[in-house]
Structure formats: C-alpha cells, structure tokens
C-alpha cells in the first residue's frame, strides 16, 4: 500500500490526466462496440441482399453477419464491406463433404469466387445437427468438418475457420450450471472429437443459448437481464444475475468435464420475439428490447460469466428481420430487430449516430388496437393510403419535416401513422383499417420516441 501511495504521489498530475484520457477512450470504445446478427430470408417482402449489406454497413454498428445457406448473391453483396460473414453448409451436404475431392470442389465453387473480397470468417457445417438429426448426418458431422478444413488449407485459405452451431439440447441439464454435462452418447462419441478439432484449428465451439425457450413467468426479470434477486449455485458458490450466464456456464462446465475448457465459445444464435399469439404473452416489444438490449450491454461490458470472468463471447442476435413466411406461431415471424423497410422494431443501441432509435413501445394495453400496414404491402399502395387520408382533411403535419413522426423518413412509417390516425378518428371499426386489404389491427402499441400513435 505504501509503495502504491508513493508512486501515485510522484506522478499525480500526469497520471491523473492519463487516467482521464484512458477512461474517455474506454467509454467511447464501449459505445461503438458492435455485435453480430443472423440474416434469415424466409420472407416474401425482404429487401435485396445488396441493400441489406449497405444498410448494415452504413446505418448500424453490426460488424458480423451469419446466414443460413451459401447463397452466392448474399456472399457477393457483402464484398468490400468489411463485414465478417459466416456462411452455412446445407445439412444435406454433410455426408458428401467427408470426401476430400468433393470438399475441394465445394470450396472452389462456394468460397473461391468471393474470397477474399468478402471477409468470410466461419463456415458453419449444418445447423443444430445433433438436435434435429438424422443419424447419418450426426455420424458424419465431425468428419465433414475436418475434411472441409483440410480442403480450405489445401486451397491456400488459412483464415476461415470451420464450426457447427448447436442447440442446448446437447446438454443433459443446465441448472445448476456447476453440475451440467453433455448428453450421454453425444459427449464422447461426437462432442469430444469435435472439441479436439476446435482445439487443433483454433475455431470456436458455437452454441445457441435461448433463455426464451425456458421462459418462466415467475423468473421473467432473470431471463430479461432486469434487476432480480439472482440465482445461487450452492456447488460453485457463484451467484447468477441472468439466465444467459447460466446457460453459457453450463456449456463451459460440460466442456471442462471432457477436458476442453480451453476451447473458445461463440454464441451463434440468441434472441427474443417481439410479438406473439394470445398464448405467448411473453412476446412483446418491451421484453424483446429488454433481452436484446441487455445482451448488447453485456457484450460491450466484457464482464464474462461467473465461471468465465472477463470473457467476451462472439455473439449473433437472432434475427435481422421479421420474416413473414416462417411457419408456426406468430412469434416465429417476429424475431427481427428490423422490419423489412429497415425501420427498427425497437432500440437496442446498434444504430450509428444520428439515426432514429425508436424507444421500446409500452406493453400492450388491454382492449386497445392500432391499425398498421401489412408486411407485404407495396410502397405504391402505402403512398395511396397517405394521399387518401390527407385529402380527407386529417392532420398530416406529424409526418412532415419537423413533425414528431417524420423520422424514419420512409413511406411505410408515414403510412402506418396516418392509417392508425384514420382508424382511431373514424370510430375504431375493423373496416376502418381495411385500406383495400393493406391494413391490419395489432394489440401492440407501435409508438416510438416522440411519435405517439393515438
């Protein structure tokens, strides 16, 4: 303590200035830290890949993207953007890739034409193979990963790593995390040789932790990175402040049991939907903003987890867009950070300076409805709706320059505000939201920032 006091006293003025400068730089760096996102395309109203790549580069802090196929149009679109890209080998290709000649042809066809203009950092071999099977894919997975890596090296490509994303169905249990372990059969038969491959090649073990799928209404604050009483693991004597950390530490402990605690972990998917069916009350804009916003803050902080302190995990949020063609419940079509017109569904702090960041809308109010455009409505139809409403004498000043709802300045956003204004002012009958079948009613308030929908 005396030594520290003397050194501090000796260098007090200059050290103080240096510390202040360091803190300013550190805080600025934290503000501009970026995060990854999954770019799914199961929709009939999504913008072209070139527009998507330009938007991500110019308007957001996202610096890495994961796609679920090897679509050449998407890979080409990210050329010369500086954005890191993870491409995915279709599941059905796995048995073929165990053959080195086939693997080399695959590299020549799917990587060589775009490399190095497109910064491909990972090739994901399949997606959640252990979870979904079938057995012949599971049996060939590690061999395919090894052979594809060899094909890359033979082709002179040494800076693209090979991995494979896993659902947390690979765990027998996750709570308490100190007792977690991989499922018997997969642990030694598949995951141990895969982890050995990751160790030898320096590639990450990629997992998809989703607190959403274990949602417990009694622990919602714990799931959503909100203030809560915490969870105490009496075996490790660690206290957890959120479920995301529980899941990652459960993966870490399971890896450690097999002797691979030194292998890096990457988060291939995680997220929370913003809208769902009546039986999915947890799917709200407020909850999605809380989870993904908390995730970004955690990522930027670099604090790690209780068992992996100061560890920063490469993380990809699911998903970039709401995808209107995904099957299943309404929640499946509402995982996106953005609508197809690039307007944010909610704000998690990933827009570049000067861009509008709509504030999270309040939770749905019982019995209230708002009129908004259908996802597949054309700009021409929406402009027609705007013209019609304004000609009827409704106040259109909020969407004009300087108005509370001018930003984001695009047809869909302006039409949404005016269509709802018309619906509310005409008496709230369902047919007042028809607009030649381009409008629909939602129970989620679309208000944002200073733009307050009636």
UniProtKB/TrEMBL annotation:
<dbReference type="GO" id="GO:0042973">
    <property type="term" value="F:glucan endo-1,3-beta-D-glucosidase activity"/>
</dbReference>
<keyword id="KW-0732">Signal</keyword>
<dbReference type="Pfam" id="PF00332">
    <property type="entry name" value="Glyco_hydro_17"/>
</dbReference>
<dbReference type="InterPro" id="IPR012946">
    <property type="entry name" value="X8"/>
</dbReference>
<dbReference type="GO" id="GO:0006952">
    <property type="term" value="P:defense response"/>
</dbReference>
<feature type="domain" description="X8">
    <location>
        <begin position="369"/>
        <end position="453"/>
    </location>
</feature>
<keyword id="KW-0336">GPI-anchor</keyword>
<dbReference type="InterPro" id="IPR017853">
    <property type="entry name" value="GH"/>
</dbReference>
<dbReference type="InterPro" id="IPR000490">
    <property type="entry name" value="Glyco_hydro_17"/>
</dbReference>
<protein>
    <recommendedName>
        <fullName>glucan endo-1,3-beta-D-glucosidase</fullName>
        <ecNumber>3.2.1.39</ecNumber>
    </recommendedName>
</protein>
<keyword id="KW-0449">Lipoprotein</keyword>
<dbReference type="Pfam" id="PF07983">
    <property type="entry name" value="X8"/>
</dbReference>
<keyword id="KW-1015">Disulfide bond</keyword>
<dbReference type="GO" id="GO:0098552">
    <property type="term" value="C:side of membrane"/>
</dbReference>
<dbReference type="GO" id="GO:0005886">
    <property type="term" value="C:plasma membrane"/>
</dbReference>
<dbReference type="InterPro" id="IPR044965">
    <property type="entry name" value="Glyco_hydro_17_plant"/>
</dbReference>
<keyword id="KW-0611">Plant defense</keyword>
<comment type="similarity">
    <text>Belongs to the glycosyl hydrolase 17 family.</text>
</comment>
<keyword id="KW-0325">Glycoprotein</keyword>
<keyword id="KW-0472">Membrane</keyword>
<keyword id="KW-0326">Glycosidase</keyword>
<keyword id="KW-0378">Hydrolase</keyword>
């Amino acid at each position: 303590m005396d030594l520290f006091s003397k050194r501090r006293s000796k260098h007090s003025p200059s050290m103080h200035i240096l510390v202040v400068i360091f803190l300013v730089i550190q805080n600025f760096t934290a503000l501009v830290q970026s995060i990854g996102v999954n770019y799914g395309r199961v929709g009939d109203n999504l913008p072209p890949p070139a527009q998507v790549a330009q938007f991500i580069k110019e308007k957001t802090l996202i610096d890495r993207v994961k796609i679920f196929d090897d679509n050449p149009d998407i890979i080409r679109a990210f050329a010369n953007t500086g954005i890191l890209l993870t491409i995915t080998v279709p599941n059905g290709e796995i048995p073929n890739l165990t053959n080195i000649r086939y693997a080399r042809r695959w590299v020549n066809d799917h990587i060589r034409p775009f490399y190095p203009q497109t910064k491909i950092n990972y090739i994901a071999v399949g997606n959640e193979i252990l979870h979904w099977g079938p057995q012949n894919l599971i049996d060939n997975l590690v061999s395919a990963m090894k052979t594809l890596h060899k094909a890359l090296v033979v082709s002179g490509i040494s800076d693209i790593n090979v991995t494979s994303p896993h659902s947390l169905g690979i765990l027998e249990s996750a709570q308490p995390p100190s007792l977690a372990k991989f499922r018997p059969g997969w642990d030694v038969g598949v995951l141990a040789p895969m982890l050995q491959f990751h160790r030898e090649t320096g590639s990450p073990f990629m997992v998809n932790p989703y607190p959403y799928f274990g949602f417990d209404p009694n622990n919602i604050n714990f799931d959503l990175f909100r203030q809560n009483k915490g969870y105490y693991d009496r075996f490790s004597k660690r206290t957890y402040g959120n479920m995301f950390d529980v899941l990652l530490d459960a993966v870490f402990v399971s890896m450690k049991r097999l002797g691979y605690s030194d292998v890096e972990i990457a988060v291939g998917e995680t997220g929370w939907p913003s809208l769902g069916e009546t039986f999915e009350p947890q799917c709200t804009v407020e909850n999605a903003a809380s989870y993904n916003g908390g995730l970004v803050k955690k990522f930027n902080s670099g604090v790690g987890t209780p068992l992996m302190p100061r560890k920063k995990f490469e993380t990809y949020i699911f998903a970039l867009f709401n995808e209107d063609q995904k099957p299943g419940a309404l929640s499946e079509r509402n995982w996106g950070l953005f609508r197809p017109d690039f307007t944010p569904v909610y704000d998690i702090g990933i827009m570049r300076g000067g861009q509008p960041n709509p504030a999270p809308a309040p939770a749905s109010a019982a019995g209230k409805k708002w009129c908004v455009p259908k996802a597949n409505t054309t700009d021409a139809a929406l402009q027609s709706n705007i013209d019609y409403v304004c000609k009827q004498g409704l106040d259109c000043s909020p969407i004009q320059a300087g108005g509370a709802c001018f930003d984001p300045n695009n047809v869909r956003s302006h039409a949404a505000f005016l269509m709802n204004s018309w619906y509310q002012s005409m008496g709230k009958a369902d047919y007042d939201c028809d607009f030649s079948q381009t409008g629909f009613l939602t129970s989620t308030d679309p208000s944002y920032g200073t733009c307050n929908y009636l």
